[in-house]
Amino acid sequence: MSADAAQTENRLDALATLATGWSAEARANALARLREMGLPTKRDEYWKYTDPTTLASEAVTEAALYTEQDTPLFDDIDRLKIVFVDGVFDAAASDDLSLEHVEIMRLSEAAAADIHWAKPLYGVLEANGQTPVARPLAALNTAMAEDGILIRVTGKASKPVSLIYKHLATTSEAILHHVVKLDEGAELTLTESGPAAARFNKVLEVDVADGAAFHHVRGQGRDHERRAVTHTFARLGKESVFKSFTMTANGVLTRNECVIELNGDDAHATVAGAAVGDGVFHHDDTVFITHDALNCESRQVFKKVLRNGAVGVFQGKILVKEGAQKTDGYQISQSLLLDEDSQFLAKPELEIYADDVACSHGSTSGAIDEEALFYLQSRGVPKDQAQDLLVLAFLGEALDEVEDETLSDSLRAQLENWLSKRSHG
Amino acid sequence: MLDIKNLAVSLEEEEKQILKGVDLKIGAGEVHAIMGPNGSGKSTLSYVLSGKDGYEVTGGSAELEGEDILEMEPEERAAAGLFLAFQYPVEIPGVGNMTFLRTAVNAQRKARGEDELSAGDFLKVVRAKAKDLKIDADMLKRPVNVGFSGGEKKRNEILQMAMLEPKMCILDETDSGLDVDAMKLVSHGVNALRDEGRSFLVITHYQRLLDHIKPDVVHIMADGKIIKTGGPELALEVENNGYADLLAEVA
User: How many angstroms away from the CA of B135 is the closest CA of chain A?
Assistant: First the structure.
């Protein structure tokens, strides 16, 4: 047995004892899936550009705490705050978990009950998302998540629910599993921010019923040493809307997977991201969108700015199933390489089995526009500031995908702030 | 104001000498014009003065109000009062024209140790100046020069000049791509900025621009040197006879 396989066996044996309550079956099933798949290795095709070793290993790589006092993201926004510290719910730091039209419960509390509305969803959307491509770290999450939040939305939520992840221990691991269920016509904005732990494994399952709308806005902060693997699984009903945006600045290793199924006619899905990486930075956006209904639209818009050896990865796929006519699929991934040491690897894919669809994809890598830089400088704008302006302009196209102006303004301001700090060391 | 002595410049990439000893002295409040055939080095002179990459100064000097500008970064030259109106203004997608103008104005104020303009004050000034140049609110909102017509781009250059209030303005073929009406509008904008403390260097192929922006001195440039200097009548001579006679004279 190889060292990798032995380590996997050890982890799985440790997991087998965890499950209790209604989630026991889901956890046991996830464990079985995981045994079948095995943990990912860098030899896997799906992990060709990103080495999963430190995400899958038993031991967590130490991550120094990020001590710089940045203004927290979304600080000025009225929201319901739910705080996790190194993956553990912090009741004292969190708001009261009550909001009109919204039921909120901790996974660790809900899981002990015999029955729960989350039962048909927990690990179910994740399991659906395991074909045609295996996502073992998501199955691992379902099997062993210690905590998470279960949110059921029955109407229009009056303010965003905000998950805030704090990191206080240098070798902590946070494994969180959230489930969001939007009933017919319901609306919710969910934000996430903070490093969470030295290593963060998170799954978010979202069930968007007919006519419902889910907005997801996430910021992965400037803390340099954190590692994260996150999976978002979403199922969309008729005329529903799902929009997810992630802003990432630095971080040793991040893999964000997003798996979306458009199951009802006339649904819309957008997945977008803006990432800035400086130095030891590896950021991977892996997206899989399946069109399985009529007249649905999907958009993928990803922008990355890389310097000092930073690496960006994009793997994006649109699968249009037979009969998913009038599909409109759009995908763009672009990188701005600020020097020759940085690298962008892109793998755009289209697989189409319907004959009346419009799908487009594009991927580009480029340097900063020297003519524009000189033009700005010639007007008196210092070079660093001019470069930041051009970087913001480049990322703007992804930021524009955030519908809520208050949130997008907050993101833009934070990005500007981060960029200006970076320019001055 | 501007004092250029024996300026020699070659391209960085290849061993090609473009300017071969340019002497030019422009006093405060004066308007000078440089005319010359294609490839004579007129645009190179404007780029070298404003600090564009790709050129190597191999000799001579250029001073703005007694300060050596050739060692300065482009933004330092701008803050010192130099302005180049580009022959081909650059399009910058994603950066709003208004943001661009305010960033530039405040960056220069900051560099000179002045307070930044408040958003309200800035807006008031820019609206008034834009109106004179028939630049509407939409042009101010759109990304810098993106989708602008040739005339709009040149008017936008003059608006920047009006906002930045430089001491030494270089206009690089500002008349290229302009119809008669647009040229009048742009010239009017430039003339409104004429002031005893502000000097202009107008680079052009054609005399017609000089009907609108009347120069005090006209220089003819050929093969990297200024070969003749005279009054406005020199421009008329070029218009009537071309450069051939002048070139022959020198040879």
Answer: 19
Q: Which of A286, A273, A284, A271 is nearest to A329 (CA)?
A: A271
Does this complex have an ipTM over 0.90?
A: yes
In sequence order, the 6+-apart residues with CB closer than 8 A to the CB of A131 are: none
CA distance A146 to B173: 69
> Model-level pTM?
0.90
Amino acid A20: pLDDT: 67
Give the H/E segment covering residue B239. Answer: helix B233-241
Secondary structure (3-state) at B129: helix
Token code pair at residue A386: 């001019």
Domain of residue B175, CATH code: 3.40.50.300
Q: How many domains does chain B have?
A: 1
* Strands of B31-35's sheet in order across: B82-85, B168-172, B199-204, B31-35, B217-222, B225-230
Domain of B183, in residue numbers: 2-250
What pLDDT, on a 0 to 100 scale, did the predictor assign at position A422? Answer: 62
pLDDT at A82 over 80: yes
Query: Least CB-CB distance to A379: which of B52, B94, B160?
Result: B160
Interface contact B92-A392, CB threshold 8 A: no
Helices and strands in chain B: count of H runs, count of E runs: 10, 12
Grade residue A329 by pLDDT with cuts at 50, 70 and 90.
very high
Q: Does residue A44 carry a pLDDT above 60?
A: yes
